[in-house]
Design brief:
The structure is a single chain. It contains 15 helices and 21 strands. Helix 8 links the parallel strand 12 and strand 13. Helix 7 runs parallel beside helix 8. The N terminus and C terminus are likely disordered.
């Protein structure tokens, strides 16, 4: 039987009730605490005052996220809540007291990086809290033993978990958000957050999906489809624009399935959102699987033609072989994917269709792979995500007869060579384009902008261009980008309706100079010093 001094706590999710305070109520309570001095009996001369040396909320936290934009949004929300509670978010892991590691379970390499980071943190005697899809899907994994875990639907309680981890306790919150027995999309959308890029807001419109793909581990973590109500998503977008955001990304495991669980659909959401987008600001749609976009093609054409929506859609095909798609349980055939692509390309000229392909799925024959190669030759996708198949533990595909490793590598190499054999942007040299400048390039030599088709355009790194819609002349093209020269005397348009937040500034909360927990720490310090005199 564990003693009262044991540091391992039981899973506190079972203590959560409908009467518990909401995140906003907890945050309001933190901001309105007024420390009240108690009468202390003076200590005998020479006796040191005994106080708890660990005060949560005063430490430095390093947040590291792997994976998709949905995971990135979760990481931003967790960082924001921690900062609002008094913790300092640092970009230097060596300076941090605690590492918050937000994981991805899609591929083996991503989990390997996650596992190695845990080991590195422990070697440096850092406190560790883990989050994301890996611990949610497999919390009993040996290398997660004794670590604190934040489930993918529990990110609104990150402060509680980090507080306990700082004190040396292990806490695991893995429960689902429910209301009247119905599963919710997740934590509230109006939580504090720190945007990695103050100009870009990532909004998760739903979590989970309706599929049961045999290779997918994410389903184990995110579960079945659960959508946020339209009014909550619209309000989140509205707040983002009021904080100077000029680009919104909609994300989820499958945006096309949005609303099927709550009696609505993706086009209905999008038409409400475009009403809120300021002139010059842009909306980017996330990934959608073919089955759920087929019935909305006509509406999607009209939406993608809207001047404030990027003519861009990410539609993963995974394979052009119907037999492989059947083994994957993808619930569509290659003809369905072709219909989506042909329909959109015909009615939205210039649209960018991005797709994903898995090489070496179990049972894939040379003939199956050749069908995939032919699909790429025909459509010459400008954006193609090529993935060598990795069997994920616990998935049906992991139990299937595997394609030999050397064959998977060879097919991946062949498809990559085909993809790099064509240049999608050379014909655009000499064009004049309007682009929205939002990011820094990886080499920090340029700013990154995107045109109407969400094609990457590199522009000179001039501060006056950041966050602006500008006209550029395209003078060079590479495999993944174009380079544009700003047109002299052309109007530079500012889409942001407010001054963007500073990098690292917390969104969604009134800015306060000192969090209440810092006031409490200061009070205790001064009070202790007084008693020692």
């Amino acid at each position: 039987m564990p003693s009262a001094c044991d540091s391992l706590l039981d899973d506190i999710e079972d203590m959560v009730t409908s009467h518990d305070p909401t995140p906003h109520e907890r945050q309001f309570a933190r901001r309105n605490i007024v420390p009240r001095p108690r009468k202390h009996q003076l200590q005998p001369a020479g006796e040191e005052l005994q106080t708890d040396s660990v005060i949560p909320g005063t430490q430095k936290i390093w947040v590291r996220t792997w994976g998709c934009s949905h995971n990135s949004s979760d990481g931003e929300y967790m960082a924001g809540q921690l900062a609002a509670s008094g913790y300092k978010i640092t970009e230097n892991p060596s300076d941090a007291d605690l590492w918050l590691l937000n994981s991805c379970t899609v591929k083996n390499p991503a989990e390997d990086h996650f596992r190695n980071s845990i080991k590195k943190a422990q070697e440096q005697n850092k406190k560790v809290v883990v989050a994301g899809c890996v611990p949610q899907a497999q919390p009993r994994t040996e290398y997660l033993k004794d670590l604190s875990i934040i489930g993918v639907q529990q990110i609104d309680r990150v402060v509680e978990v980090v507080d306990e981890a700082i004190k040396g306790h292990s806490v695991r919150l893995l429960g689902q958000k429910k209301e009247k027995g119905k599963r919710l999309g997740g934590a509230r959308l109006d939580l504090p957050k720190i945007r990695k890029n103050p100009l870009i807001e990532i909004i998760s419109i739903n979590t989970g999906c309706l599929n049961a793909c045999t290779y997918c581990k994410t389903k184990h973590a995110r579960g079945d489809l659960a959508s946020y109500p339209i009014e909550e998503l619209v309000e989140r977008a509205r707040q983002s624009f009021q904080e100077g955001v000029c680009e919104i990304w909609l994300t989820s495991e499958d945006t096309g399935a949005y609303g099927r669980d709550i009696g609505t659909d993706l086009p209905s959401l999008l038409w409400e959102l475009v009403k809120e987008i300021p002139e010059g600001a842009m909306l980017r749609l996330g990934m959608t699987n073919p089955p759920y976009i087929l019935e909305h093609l006509e509406e999607m054409v009209r939406i993608l033609q809207h001047p404030r929506v990027y003519a861009f859609l990410h539609v993963p095909v995974q394979s052009a072989s119907d037999s492989v798609l059947m083994d994957m349980k993808r619930e569509y055939c290659c003809a369905d994917f072709r219909r989506v692509t042909d329909f959109l390309q015909e009615r939205v000229p210039g649209i960018t269709i991005a797709t994903d392909i898995i090489c070496g799925f179990p049972g894939e024959t040379d003939e199956d792979f050749e069908q995939t190669m032919e699909l790429v030759r025909q459509y010459r996708f400008p954006s193609l995500f090529i993935n060598q198949f990795y069997p994920r533990p616990g998935t049906p595909a992991a139990k299937m007869e595997q394609v030999p490793a050397h064959m998977k590598k060879q097919r991946t190499k062949e498809l990559s060579a085909l993809f790099h054999s064509y240049k999608p942007y050379d014909h655009k040299i000499g064009e004049r384009q309007r682009v929205l400048v939002t990011e820094d390039s990886f080499d920090s030599q340029y700013y990154v902008a995107h045109n109407k088709f969400y094609e990457q355009v590199l522009v000179p790194k001039k501060p006056e261009l950041k966050g602006k819609m500008v006209e550029v002349d395209i003078y060079e093209a590479g495999k993944h980008y174009m380079k544009g020269r700003p047109v002299e005397d052309a109007q530079v348009f500012t889409p942001s309706i407010a001054q963007p937040l500073q990098k690292g500034q917390v969104s969604g909360l009134p800015q306060v100079s000192i969090p209440c927990r810092h006031w409490l720490f200061l009070f205790l310090f001064l009070h202790t010093s007084h008693l020692k005199k």
